[in-house]
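Hello again, I could really use a second opinion on something today. I've been staring at a protein lately and its backbone has me curious. Please have a think about how the structure follows from the sequence. I owe you a coffee for this, so here goes:
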Amino acid sequence: MSSARTAKVKEPAPYDGKRDELRGFLTQVRIYHKRIGLTDDSERVLDASAYLKGDALEWFEPITRDYLENNKEDQEDETSEIFASFPKFEETLKNVFGEVDE
């Protein structure tokens, strides 16, 4: 029997839009994606959006719905931009909910 074990990957805690929790949330999401090997930006954004709740979900839900329900050509520009780039998703979250000073 091998003594090596596969560590269980902890999912990010849900994020509700609190300014002082944004940096921690984004760090948790990056760690989670790295540990599970998720590299496609649109899949990373979609996965991260599943951990939004409260004000954050209320803000992002129409964008997620646009992404899920429409072909790329029919999506709003903002939706296409956010789902094309995980860094753009992070930047947009920071712009909407504020970024804690480093």
